[in-house]
Q: What sequence folds into this?
């Protein structure tokens, strides 16, 4: 549980290190900006903000009405963020529903396995296009010049991952096609 909490703190403090924002804007930034490589439970964001505020790592400014005030990172929050970023990366066990289904593909059937791979390839093509749009936006935006090279590194990882998925899917479809051909030539 502590690893999950510190990861949420890292996401919240990191986003606030870019610019102050409301809790809602923070949720959107984590989903829309970090979402290509990081997901965060929205139910964790607001309690984490409250904890970080109590600890003095973020301060609230503006309205006292919920959802109207903006949060900004404090000097102690920057220290905490750097401390969190310096910790070892928490490994997460893989959970890939597609691979689980393909592993037991004999039970699922050739047609269903092929369909799953085709869907996976199509999703990767969409992701690749989205990453390429993000790169164009980042390169065309004169703001955040100090952060941009690091942001481009994360997007590049997404590009490589999407391309790898497309390559794998092409190989998998060829292999499934070969299996289909083998089954058609077998005597009953």
A:
């Amino acid at each position: 549980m502590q690893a999950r909490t510190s990861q949420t703190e890292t996401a919240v403090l990191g986003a606030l290190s870019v610019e102050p924002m409301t809790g809602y804007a923070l949720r959107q930034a984590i989903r829309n900006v970090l979402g290509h490589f990081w997901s965060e439970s929205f139910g964790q964001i607001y309690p984490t903000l409250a904890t970080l505020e109590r600890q003095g790592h973020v301060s609230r400014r503006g309205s006292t009405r919920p959802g109207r005030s903006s949060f900004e990172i404090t000097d102690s929050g920057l220290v905490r963020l750097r401390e969190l970023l310096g910790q070892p990366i928490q490994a997460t066990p893989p959970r890939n529903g597609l691979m689980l289904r393909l592993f037991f593909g004999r039970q699922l059937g050739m047609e269903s396995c092929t369909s799953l791979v085709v869907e996976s390839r199509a999703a990767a093509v969409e992701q690749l296009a989205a990453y390429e749009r993000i790169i164009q936006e980042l390169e065309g935006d004169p703001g955040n010049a100090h952060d941009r090279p690091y942001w481009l590194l994360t997007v590049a990882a997404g590009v490589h991952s999407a391309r790898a998925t497309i390559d794998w899917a092409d190989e998998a479809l060829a292999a499934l096609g070969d299996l289909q051909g083998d089954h058609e030539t077998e005597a009953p």
